[in-house]
Amino acid sequence: MNSEESTSPAATAVPVGPATVGADVRDGRTIVSAVLSAYRGPVAVRLWDGSLAVGWQDAPCTVFFRDSATLCDLVLHRDLMQLAEAHLAGEVDIEGDPEVLFDLSAYLENLRIPWSTRLRLMRCALHLSGDGYRRVLRHRRVAESRRVNSAATIAYHYDVGNDFYGLWLDPEYVYSCAYFRDPAQPLAEAQRDKLDYICRKLRLTPGQRLLDIGCGWGALALWAARHYGARVHGITLSAEQQKRATERVQQEGLGDQVEIELLDYRDLQGDERYDCIASVGMFEHVGVRNFPTYFGVVRRLLKPGGLFLNHGITSEAGWRRTPLTRFMNQYIFPDGELARIGDVVGAMERQGFEILDLESLRPHYPLTLRHWLRALCARRDAVIAVSSEVTYRLWRLYMAGSAYFFEQGSIGVYQILAGRAHGCPSVPLRRDDLYCAREH
Predict the structure, then answer these.
(1) Other beta carbons within 10 Å of 15
(2) Hey, is 269 helix, strand or coil?
(3) Domains defined along the chain, listed by start
(4) Residue 323 contacts by C-beta under 8 Å, 6 or more apart in sequence?
(5) Mapping DSSP to helix (H, G, I), strand (E, B) and coil, where does residue 53 land?
(6) CB 413 within 8 A of CB 344
(7) Are 337 and 313 in contact (CB under 8 A)?
(8) Is residue 145's pLDDT more than 50?
(9) Can you tell me the distance from the alpha carbon of 169 to that of 120, in angstroms, rounded to the nearest whole number?
(10) Facing residues of 262 across strands?
(11) SS3 of residue 102 by DSSP
(12) CA–CA distance, 213 with 223 (Å, rounded to integer)
């Protein structure tokens, strides 16, 4: 939004509702109005009686509290993670564009409420629905039991099921950011461009041996074999991915070129060495303390003169403990941890790599996520049929928040091309070959 929109009369807090309201609604309006008194953004808040506490009708995004106990709980315990969990439990709805919701994040992060105001809001919270704190405790026990069940069913990111991912991914099943020529380019085409771009960066030639660490559903492995004649060894820790990738290999008749194994990179033993190694979208699971092991294994497996491409998400502030990171670790990536790009480069150099090329693809990720989000929402009923309502709500929120923070710039994604230090890697003096599109 521009500044004129954010300060227009239509954007200010205007309670809308019947002339006579109950005490719980008055207390709810008092709480929301006090917390968001200085907020002039595009997010509205609607209470359980249908009235607006903040914002305007037809706002781009509206937070709808279905009952007073949820708002009471948030005030008394002041944990923003509970807002997301209440949404998963169906107690709070996010209407409209969910990405817009995260416009509130910076405001709430910097919010400082005086103690006198806090005490007043806590008194209002305890009065909600007239049942006081006993109702809040009952609500918390119910909510916590729901969270345990939800976490148990969705904690493992890649075991949601291949049918679930197939509803919103591109036909190649690429689960990492695409490489767009322009914002209007179709997602499937941009994902094919990304796969080809990686192969060109690795300077793949027929017969070369490629290791794909965290190969997913086999998109890069199949592309490298199909279009570059590479012999590919793909590894993944997801049985669902391994099963589907192996089926695709057989369907395309590439069994002599591509092998997909259910294997941890740390368990790669023997004398096998690879001309090229790629890791796309797996790096986020490694963990900062495991960088020496990860990069050490890759260097050991890479032939002299070979090339290694690491494609991974980073954070400008590292992985600080915040409500957002706690939510991500509990519900999305149990082992996820992001590092600064400088720390990644330093860890690679300490393990004997020379950085040959580093490229930020950050602008491409919000575009990708919005494609995924639109497809997810368009196929809502089918998504719920193969998973659950909780899973649909979770992934809608996760994709929208990720798009917002990539756009804002606090998280990024980089492709790092490296070779063994002082190892005469097989790259030309200039990058011209990267930008010559191949015919396939």
Answers:
(1) 16
(2) coil
(3) 3-153 (no CATH), 162-435 (3.40.50.150)
(4) 79, 80, 81, 84
(5) strand
(6) no
(7) no
(8) no
(9) 48
(10) 236
(11) coil
(12) 15
At position 66, the amino acid (one-letter code) is: R
Nearest to 260 by CA among 221, 315, 225, 229: 221
Q: Please tell me the least confidently modeled range out of 134-143, 242-251, 428-437.
A: 134-143
* 406 vs 247: CA distance, rounded Å: 34
The predicted model scores a pTM of 0.86
CA distance 415 to 312: 7
Q: Please tell me the least confidently modeled range out of 25-34, 109-118, 212-221, 232-241.
A: 109-118
Query: Which three-class secondary structure state does DSSP give residue 331?
Result: helix
Q: What percent of the chain has pLDDT over 90?
A: 55
Distance in angstroms (rounded) separating the CA atoms of residues 175 and 165: 9
> Judging by beta carbons within 10 Å of its beta carbon (0-12, 13-18, 19+), is residue 182 exposed, middle or buried?
exposed
Q: Euclidean distance between the first and final Cα of the chain, in Å?
A: 42
Helix (H, G, I), strand (E, B) or coil at 15: coil
3-class SS shares of the chain: helix, strand, coil, % to 5: 50, 15, 35
Cα–Cα distance for residue pair 319/6, rounded to 1 Å: 32
Give burial (CB, 10 Å; 0-12/13-18/19+) of 220.
buried
The side-by-side arrangement of strands in the sheet containing 92-96 is 52-54, 43-46, 61-65, 92-96
φ, ψ at 391 (rounded to 5°): -60, -45
CA angle, 343 as apex, 337 and 349 as ends, to 5°? 125
Q: Which residues contact 299 (CB under 8 A, 6 or more apart)?
A: 308, 351, 352, 353, 420
